[in-house]
Amino acid sequence: MSITKEAVLKALSYVEEPDLGKDLVTLNMIEDVQIDGQNISFTVVLTTPACPLKELIHNACVRAIHTMVDKDAQVTVNMTSRVTTMRQNRDVLRGVKNIIAVASGKGGVGKSTVTANLAVALARSGAKVGLIDADISGPSMPVMFGVEDSRPHVFQTEDGRNLIEPIERFGVKIMSIGFLAPAESAIVWRGPMASSALKQFITEVDWGELDYLLLDMPPGTSDIHLTLVQTLPVTGAVIVTTPQKVALADAQKGLQMFRQPQINVPVLGIIENMAWFTPQELPDNKYYIFGQGGGAALAQKHEVPLLGEIPLVQGIRENGDQGIPAVLQTTSPVAPIFEQLAESVARAVSIRNNVAPRTQVVDVKS
Ligand SMILES: Nc1ncnc2c1ncn2[C@@H]1O[C@H](COP(=O)(O)OP(=O)(O)OP(=O)(O)O)[C@@H](O)[C@H]1O
Asked: Which of 109, 111, 113 to mutate to test the pocket of ligand 1 (most atoms within 8 A of CB)?
């Protein structure tokens, strides 16, 4: 009896996407089923290019076909991806699927370093990525991407609007107040001016189609945070902390800020930066100089995942200062750590898109 498309889909309906807890057929992840005798091919559309479960899903598909359709079939599983979104009303940032706020309670915990590396790692996995340096009082992205001297062009659209072209570097589209004003004058961008500059970044920049737009938030809690949630529906927030008690206490405040009823942005997870110190010359040694397990405990307490633990390594600081994010140093042990972080964040976004309610733009009256 010849193999039918229905039989193939039936078999694949027994393969579960482990993170999303539903089968591949229900999730509309199977496309382009082709059958030629005993040769069966189809495409699995994953929800993130950086999917850590790729191989597992691939093997489960082959097994399902062999068990339920034909044990001798030649199975070709093509893997591709289409990042999911829950955004329906796209009045702002029309082409952007997911907006991720990267926040910290305390300053100096490495939030910008983590954001820069996360953006590059996501882009390297095949996603379309943008980055807004919303840390308006201390923009650091121009330095971290080695584009301090770049100035974005403004162009006019067909309907007569002026749009800013973001600066593109290492596959990431970047917008920073640092491109518009020299670093030493950053102090003037405060309060309402900062908020209105930030709104401009959101609405008057030609972001095009993006899978992920990362927002490097200012540390702490401020008007800027409110501006952000007032202006756009943030998909979720990630909180960067270091293991010290003071940093963890502030990270908790940051986390709770997103969870306030009038903000109500889901927290995707915690990233512990400077989790341990590793000397360059002794890469296998770990020294927990700031304490151990704080990020994991915070994540557990608030029932969110610990998305990654990044060591304190001299090279990360040096690469940041040189304008080449550490994840690009492919021979360094740090690169896979940031790659894994990107996988975890992308995974958390697709889980959030599958289960949590859509984030509403909050109407906060000041
Ligand atoms: N894992 C790390 N290993 C080594 N150095 C790091 C690491 N993370 C960050 N740094 C360094 O620590 C300093 C502060 O980092 P960064 O500017 O990213 O922090 P931040 O939290 O964004 O700061 P701010 O609160 O000022 O915005 C930088 O010099 C950076 O290179």
From this structure: 113
Where are the chain's structural domains?
A: 5-81, 96-355
Q: What is the CATH number of domain 5-81?
A: 3.30.300.130
pLDDT, tens digit, for every residue of 261-300? 888 899 999 999 999 999 878 878 999 999 999 999 999 9
DSSP per residue, 234-273: --EEEEEE-SSHHHHHHHHHHHHHHHSTTT-PPEEEEEEE
Which pLDDT belongs to residue 113?
96
What CATH architecture is 96-355?
Answer: 3-Layer(aba) Sandwich (3.40)
Candidate from 225, 317, 322 with most ligand 1 atoms within 8 A of CB, to mutate: 317
> What distance in Å separates the CA atoms of residue 333 and residue 197, rounded to the nearest whole number?
38
Pocket of ligand 1 (CB under 6 A): 104, 107-113, 135, 138, 140, 219, 273-274, 310, 312-313, 316-317, 320
> Looking at this predicted complex, what is its ipTM?
0.98
Do the domains at 5-81 and 96-355 have one common CATH topology?
no
Residue 33: HSE in the Cβ half-sphere, 13 Å Cα cutoff:
18
Amino acid at 165: E
